[in-house]
Amino acid sequence: MKEVTNITTTEVTYQFAKEEVLDNAYHRELRKDTLYLAMVLGNNYGKKVQMQTITEEGAVELHGVVLALNEEFIFLKGGTKIPVCAVSEVKVY
Q1: 13-47 per-position pLDDT tens digit
Q2: Of 38, 49, 78, 86, which one is least surrounded by beta carbons within 10 A?
Q3: pLDDT digits over 43-63, tens only?
Q4: How many CB atoms lie within 10 A of CB 81?
Q5: DSSP 8-77
Q6: Can you tell me the distance from the alpha carbon of 11 to that of 23, in angstroms, rounded to the nearest whole number?
Q7: Is residue 12 scored above 90 in pLDDT?
Q8: 14 burial level (CB within 10 Å; 0-12, 13-18, 19+)
Q9: How far is residue 50's CA from residue 63's CA, in Å, rounded to a whole number?
Q10: CB count in 10 Å sphere of residue 60
């Protein structure tokens, strides 16, 4: 059973995967596009994102608002920074 963490102002203490978790270039591009959409919707409408990330302990599901992103990191509301390469799935709700 995967652990679910709702991020608002909570500090995340997970050790995220340092290697790329997606092996397909199409899925990596789809993840990037979905994260960009999540950032736009999060900043303009307060929409949250559900991300499945891979940590040293296993899969963890995170919920939060994406404020910014670059090629390496996702910045969530509350100051949490997550490496893009550790995200295996993204859903906006």
Answers
A1: 889 999 999 999 999 999 999 999 999 999 999 99
A2: 78
A3: 999 999 999 999 998 888 899
A4: 12
A5: SSPPP---B-SS-S---HHHHHHHHHHHHHHHHHHHHH---EEEEEEETTEEEEEEE-EEEE-SSEEEET
A6: 29
A7: no
A8: middle
A9: 5
A10: 18
DSSP annotation of 7 reads -
Task: In whole angstroms, give the CA distance from residue 7 to residue 78.
Answer: 7
Whether the CB-CB separation of 7 and 63 falls below 8 Å is answered with yes
Residue 20 tokens, joined: 């790329």
Domains in the chain, CATH or no CATH each? 3-92 (2.30.30.100)
CA distance 93 to 14: 23
- The encoded tokens of residue 57 equal 């302990």
Q: Which sign, positive or negative, has the C-alpha torsion 93, 35, 18, 79?
A: negative
